[in-house]
Amino acid sequence: MQRDEVVDILKNKLKFSSESIEKLDVFSEMLLLANKKRNLISKSTESVLWNRHILDSAQIIQFIDKNAVDISDFGSGAGFPGIVIAIYDEQKRFHVKLYEKSPVKRAFLKDVNTRLNLNMEILEAIEGYNLETDVIVCRAFKKLKNIINISCETLKKPHNIIILKGKNAQLEINSVSLNKNYSYKLVNSITDNDSKIILIEANKNEK
User: Fold this and answer.
1) Phi and psi of 92, rounded to 5°?
2) Rounded to two decimals, what is the model's pTM?
3) Cα→Cα distances 132→82, 93, 96, 201, 203, Å
4) Is residue 124 included in any domain, yes or no?
5) What is the distance of C-alpha 176 from the center of its chain?
6) Which of 28, 93, 109, 133 is most buried (most C-beta within 10 Å)?
7) Where does 4-104 show beta strands of DSSP type E?
8) DSSP-derived 3-state class of residue 122
9) Alpha carbon distance 88, 57 (integer Å)
């Protein structure tokens, strides 16, 4: 799908406003320009940016609890999905934290945040922080086991985890021992028939 097809889905299914679409246009232009000098996304995906990266990230919005306030994007990279979520959130209900270890990518994220006036905070690698969040989102981050370990060891309040995964999502879940406080379900991605979204509900951690 190219831009216009994706925009149709963003507006009609995911309820992005015209103003948010304009910000996505600016973001995509900034990304493609910066990508000429920095390795922010694979060059092979530039031509399918709107489907492969923007729509793939935007579909997460369907699963974010309306009462959520703090959203943490682990390994945000070029801003997926964190920036897309922040752009959608025109009323700035969410405080979106983007955790990214690369200084080059963090610099780009800060440029976008300033240019688009988003409600975001750009931070270094997640391991250096005491985590407080309502929702964890991940795309192309670490293995599920690592994400669950971070959740279990650092978060004491109930939260949700939303992870974009490929065709091996079920196999990865099967390889992880989820304790009684964690429940999950898989839903299909709207951008790839083989890809899945892992939705995990984590109740208050009890050792």
Assistant:
1) 55, 45
2) 0.94
3) 16, 16, 12, 16, 14
4) yes
5) 22
6) 109
7) 70-74, 95-99
8) strand
9) 11
CB 31 within 8 Å of CB 40: yes
Domain with residue 58: its CATH number is 3.40.50.150
Contact 52, 45 (CB under 8 A): yes
**pLDDT per residue rounded down to tens, the chain (207 residues):** 999 999 999 999 999 999 999 999 999 999 999 999 999 999 999 999 999 999 999 999 999 998 999 999 999 999 999 999 999 999 999 999 999 999 999 999 999 999 999 999 999 988 878 889 999 999 978 888 889 988 988 888 899 999 999 888 998 888 888 888 899 999 999 999 899 999 999 986 454
Question: How far is it, in rounded angstroms, from Cα 184 to Cα 107?
Answer: 35
Give me the number of domains the chain comprises.
1
**19 CB neighbour count, 10 Å cutoff:** 10
Determine the straight-line distance between the first and last CA of the chain, rounded to whole angstroms: 46
Beta bridge partners of 184: 200
Q: Tokens 């925009």, residue?
A: 7
Any domain includes 207: no
